[in-house]
TrEMBL record:
Subunit structure: Heptamer of 7 subunits arranged in a ring. Interacts with the chaperonin GroEL.
Keyword list, A-Z: Chaperone, Cytoplasm
InterPro entries: Chaperonin_GroES, Chaperonin_GroES_sf, Chaprnonin_Cpn10_CS, GroES-like_sf
GO cellular component labels: cytoplasm
Highest taxon of source: Bacteria
Family: Belongs to the GroES chaperonin family.
Any Pfam family hit: Cpn10
This protein's name: Co-chaperonin GroES
SUPFAM superfamilies hit by this protein: GroES-like
Keyword DNA-binding attached: no
Functional summary from the UniProt entry: Together with the chaperonin GroEL, plays an essential role in assisting protein folding. The GroEL-GroES system forms a nano-cage that allows encapsulation of the non-native substrate proteins and provides a physical environment optimized to promote and accelerate protein folding. GroES binds to the apical surface of the GroEL ring, thereby capping the opening of the GroEL channel.
Molecular function (Gene Ontology), one example: protein-folding chaperone binding
Amino acid sequence: MASIKPLSDRVLVRPDSAEEKTSSGIIIPDSAKEKPQRGTVVAVGPGKYENGNKIGMTVKEGDKVLYGKYAGNEIEIDGEELMIMRESDILGVLS
């Protein structure tokens, strides 16, 4: 299996699967499914440097996060769909 280590302030996220049914039990067709906006952090970069000072990352591997609808870039590693994005694209950590 290939692995990827994000650089700078980037984060690798495994998106949650899209909803198959509504809460009332209606099955959603593939063409109408919305892109998920939450996922699990898989890997974290070391942080970035600004004005000579290192700014560490606030998220860590295993965190459940919420991110913007158009955040990041979709990539595929060994057949698995992942998202790579800047930490600033993450809206919050779910608890």
